[in-house]
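Changelog-adjacent note: as of this version, every example in the card shows the full chain rather than a window. The one below runs 505 residues end to end.
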Amino acid sequence: MNSGSRAHEKATTKITTTGHPVDEVPAPPKLLALGLQHVLVMYAGAIAVPLIVGRALQLSPSDVAFLISADLFVCGVVTILQSFGATAWFGIRLPVMMGVTFAAVGPMVAIAAANPGTEGARQLFGSVMAAGVVTMLIAPLMSRLLRFFPPVVTGTIILVIGVSLMPIGINWIFGNPMGSTSPMMVDPAHSDWLTTVGDISAAPGSPIPLIPPGLEAAPSLPNPLYATLGNLAISVAVLIAIVVVARFGRGFLANISVLLGIVIGSLIAVVAGKISFTSVIEAEWFALVAPFHFGTPLFDPVMVLTMSLVMIVVLIESTGMFLALGEVTGKRVTQPMLSAGLRTDGLGTLIGGIFNTFPYTSFSQNVGLVGVTGVRSRFVCVAGGGILIVLGLVPKMGALVEALPTAVLGGAGIAMFGMVAATGIRILSGVDFAANRNSLLIVAISLGIGMIPLVAPNFSQWMPAEIHPLVESGILLATFSAVVLNAVFNGTSQKNHARTAVSEN
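Full-length structure tokens:
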């Protein structure tokens, strides 16, 4: 290791002089910058779910904007509870940023579509609250599963988490597969022709048969908004900036390489005219987030059961995420810690329902950020939680962050999500594949099964809708596969369990 690397490592890990790096507290200016870095990384994911569900509920634009503010506010509150801790019962006390889980999007959209408007919102938030209570009750049971997660299992799960996240970063660069930035678009001439024929066929006495319901023109033209060279250039600039700062920066400067990359990308986007400040100007300076904004919650048994099943999926994914953080930070994840972390997922979900928002879990992109920067202090995420609360209460600040084009985050996403996958590979490198060739089979099969939702997202279309939340998560599928195969080949002895611990620094 050269002197520059040693200086970088020293500056990265020794912010204070005593205790584990997870418990060190950076100086306030550094704390604020590092916390902001975490917020910028998870912001796009944090506001995506309230946008999707709010529109599915057919709420007014003002109510959708309220959902976003409420979500940011609760993100901050639950992040502080998880990272800082509250009594021995809540908080894993690791650098965790909490956000709305995407595992719940499908069921929530289905509930919203069947029950639109304020009434549907009351039913949805009631089911979220009840699922939060159920989650807190079963969290200790889930934490007892630690012995089923030796290195061959945890390494595989973390590898699948990183690979599953890669499409998010890639789509930030080029555009989403669906919607206004999809690769292909409908030819306007085809759409106009179909409309004209539809009008003629609907006329009385027309010899032309009526157009069958649901018939639409297929996308056939390349979308000029997809994979634009301008967006690609911004993402590449961000990635290059991150690499340069990480390579040549020293101390604190190297720790905020991702933040500096995003700032540089934002400045380029401003010069290129890709950022509009209209929403910032129109946004209010302060807006209170009130509980039960849509009225008294309603508790439908079927909806409560659905959301509770979703939370079981969330708990399994969170277990993998917490173990990944344990590996990245060098902090052993014990059963009491895991139980407190999972219980906080439930508490956060209960708080989310009270404040008109959704189920919460740890954001995996921030795990990657911890790996990229080497900053392991949980108080950085506590600061990030404080920033999120401010963003939720000050819509103008939230609108400023929301104005950033996703291409600015694209280059950062490649580095961060790749770091999660690389962490999984590092854990697997400690597995003795030569002594136990079946371990290779565990990794191979589980990785393949975990890729199914990624490669074939419609594979579950003929399966019962009730089990979709259980099979559409590649992380859950890979976890189930790895745990079962490891039990088949290696058993679940206490010796196996002991290897799950990560040595303390």
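Structural remarks: Confidence is low (pLDDT under 50) at residues 1-17, 496-505.
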